[in-house]
Request: fold
Amino acid sequence: MKNVKSHKVYKYIILSILNIFIFLISESICAQNQTISGIVKAKSDYKLDYFIVDIFNEKDSTLISGASFYDSDKFELVIKKLEESIIVRISSLGYKNAYKNISLSSLNDNIDIGEIMLDEIVLKEIEIVSKIPTIINKADRMVVNVTGSILSDALNGLEMLQKTPGLIRNRDGISVAGKGTPVYYINGKMTKSLQEIEMINPRDVKSIEVIDNPSSAYDADGHAVVIINTKKRSDLYYYRAGGDLIQARRLSGDIYTEGQISYKKMIVNSYYGYYDNTSRTFEDNYRSAGKNNTISSFAKGFSKSNRHQYRFSTDFNISDRQKIGYQLDGYYRNDSFNKNQFTTNSNQSLNDFITYSVTEGNNRQINNTIYYNVDIDTLGQSLNIITDYTIYSDRSNQVYYNLLDNESPYYNTNFNKGKSTIFSIKADYQKKISKKWLMDTGIKYYVIDSKNTNNQSGSTNIIQAYDSKEKNVAGYINFSADISPKVNMRLGIRGENNYRKGLKGDMLFIDTTHFDFFPSALIRYNYNNDSYIGLAYSNRISRPSLSALDPSLIVDSLMNRIGNPNLKSTKIHSFQFSINPFQSLNIRLGYSYLVNPFYFMAYQDELSPHITNVRFENGKNTHTYTFSVTYNKNVTKWWSFSFFGTGWQDFYKYAANNTSKYNDKISWFINLNNSISLPYDVEMELALDYNGGGSSGTIQNKKNWNLYGSLKKSFLAKTMTVNLSYNDIFRTYISKQRSVLYGNNFNVWDGDYSYIRLGISYQLGKSKYKSVSGNKEEQNRL
Reply:
């Protein structure tokens, strides 16, 4: 009854928000406003990354309005209707200011000032540091501007993501609150691994977009999308090298080198990095296996990993509007893991197990990408084509034995070998079909072919092969428009035909074909240039991994795991309401309805000698609610502060003592980040992550927190940078989980993420836009 009442309250809240939203839109139609619009371009061949438009009263020079514009050469500002003259100022970092005087008394409500061309400013050996806003909130996403922020000083692309507001660091990697692990794109290309992101130079990144309600333009599989947009480089050449020493339980280190050269219309870039890491973990487990039997264990693990990463790319500008490129990237990684597990069972015949295991393995990935971009005209018509071919292979060998009192031990080996190939091609086309409407459409095809072998010998002898194939053909179309100066909207739909086939030896386990439509919509009301309210909807899907469908067995003395080839995909309907009361503050409310959710299940198995039977299962339809607040402010000239807080609540049903209950404890996450400029040009970061626990699917988590920060100083005319950083040095990262499903499993996982790291990087280069003369106006702006 309590849950029914809470659902009614949520419905009343959503209906009230919709009524307010509709009222504000209707009010905008009757508002007495004037619209100032125009087009801004650079006289050089390079597109402006951003520009700022400010409107002043000509009489007393007071500021009337202003706003920043990104990734577009068009601007539009709405001001209250005036009967006097104004001055429009256009500015962008690295360009001279442009001014336009306009008399409003004799003009209409909609004022087009035409095309404004900006002249470049050339400086003598001056490094330009941008002060653009760090965070820009939109109705379906949060755009974090990396240029000029502390994110640009991160050691690599992965650390940059870990510090990005809106993203959560956890033991499994990076996630989006209430949405899970996101899908990553770099300049429109979907990544195949986090190693591709790690190789990025943060200073080359323009912005990061965290999309928690993706449109139909993105693959339907995945609840959230993270897009990394890089800058267009204009160097004749540059070279950078660096490395860092990490003191954790033992000393380890990383090194990297990168070079780039431009010649006429061609740019060539290469990168190589070597990474050496180690970690130590502890794990306590408690499980019930039957009515009177329990098992508890303590495990201590030590892992070591080293990998080689590389990238080679070349870009060729066919003309001012056409570009073609090729990129080869990949990695090779060696891993070793030593684990001792001490087990106590209430069943005396199984008591005092001691398990020793050593796992060694390696995996590699090679990715080839060819792309072609063309700006067909100056009205926004463009075509982008990207082709990918990826090869991934892995091998692992586990040797372990179980000792029961003084009896002979049970020896086992587990050898796994797998190889996967991924081919994909996609084309995206954009065209302005009227003064207000913009259309973007595209198609995509991909195929994944995977072959895996598992060979177990010892007390258990199993040899099995599992092969799978997945094909997907998709097409989408989106329409977006500025209905009025204050109302923007977007409508779209995506269609995907997905085919999956799975074989275990000669037995066919999976042979399915599904076609689905995925609509999306967005509407936004701008009640001034810095404030808005918006409502977004998207239909997504979560397909189970092929490993979760794998009917093969993984067996040891304590547990067996069985794949579920009958597992259904989860369909998700997501609604999101966002409000931006002023530029520094954003509030989001989200609701998702999940059809056929699947999650990890642990069953007691009294008929089998194995203690548990573990697999994925579909559950009953459920709900998820999310809430987040983002606040970003330059408090003083030397202190910038950001706050990100989020909470989410799952409603997963489970059975306990023949009673249906909800796993609905609210989860909380808070990030506080301070960027402080100290004397002698030292930059300091001080940050805190707090995870308040709560439930996530079928798991209940406990609280944990992490304190981290850094000190950065540049030398040798800012060509060399020294960065001293620390992470969680006062405590060990602890994750406590309690399963609410059969078995009452309880797990405490301690991961040793404490370290102090010293990083040094050196970069030199020559830019196209340096001259012997400086400009006083630009220096004053800096």
Notes: The chain has three domains: 1-30, 31-118, 265-771. The helical segments are 2-30, 157-162, 194-198, 546-549, 776-781.
